[in-house]
Amino acid sequence: QTVPEELQNGGGFGYVVAFRPFGTISWMQTVVASPDASRYVFRNESLPPFSPYEVKVGVYNNKGEGSFSPVTVVYSAEEEPTRAPTTVLARSLSASDVEVSWAPPWENQHKGRIQGYEVRCWRHDEKEENAKRIRTVGNQTSTKVSNLRGNALYHLAVRAYNTAGTGPSSAAVNVTTKKPR
After folding, report:
1. Which residues form the Fibronectin type-III domain (predicted)?
2. E-assigned strands of the chain?
3. Cα dist from 168 to 6, 34, 84, 90, 158, whole Å
4. Residues 41-45: contacts with CB under 8 Å, at least 24 apart
5. How far apart are CA 147 and CA 18, in angstroms?
6. Helix (H) and strand (E) counts for the chain?
7. 86-177 domain in CATH 2.60.40.10?
């Protein structure tokens, strides 16, 4: 958060951002000269994705440097999931509802974390691009798909997602909704 102007106490106010790979000794520092700045982006293409860094932010003005914030751990950018969920199963609950479940993908967790799953559902006589999409949050590995047509064949597929994007799709599974009463 930026420091309010009344607390900057003099001209030449700015921030010092110090960071280091987690577990190392030496701090790298950079100066952010704008008093309104609320972020700094460190770019380095050789950084492994989702690497932990220790970060602290200090302040300065024309009279010198102030104290630093407590150290916090942040992570470099994630890569989108590279593997699809497995063991996708679907079962008809009624004429309009099906339940789909899956197992999380075997994922290299050093590249990112899964934030949830996207379930796509489309009727056999429809195009996959027009699929109904349901997003889950967290480690939930099943969901209900509602408002479907009775006695109809549906295809369902599941993909994991995170802040970087959506990963590859599982193989589609088929389910036929129950006949309406």
Report:
1. 1-79, 84-180
2. 14-21, 28-32, 52-61, 64-68, 72-75, 86-92, 98-103, 116-123, 132-135, 142-145, 153-162, 165-166, 173-176
3. 51, 41, 5, 19, 8
4. none
5. 52
6. 0, 13
7. yes
Please state, in angstroms and as integers, the Cα–Cα distance from residue 48 to each residue in 36, 43, 44, 117, 120, following that order.
30, 12, 9, 24, 31
- The domains of the chain are located at 5-75, 86-177
Q: Dihedral through CA 63, CA 64, CA 66, CA 72, nearest 10?
A: 140
Fold match between 5-75 and 86-177? yes
List C-alpha distances in Å: 161 to 4, 48, 148, 173. Answer: 37, 19, 24, 19
Tokens of 139: 């480690």
Q: What is the pTM of this model?
A: 0.70
Cα-based distances in Å from 166 to 9, 137, 161, 171: 46, 13, 4, 15
Per-residue pLDDT of the chain (181 residues; tens, 9 = 90+): 888 888 887 789 999 999 999 989 999 999 999 888 988 888 887 878 888 999 999 999 998 898 899 999 998 888 888 889 999 999 999 999 999 999 998 765 556 788 999 999 999 999 888 899 999 998 899 999 999 999 999 999 999 999 888 999 999 999 999 998 8
CATH topology assigned to domain 5-75: Immunoglobulin-like (2.60.40)
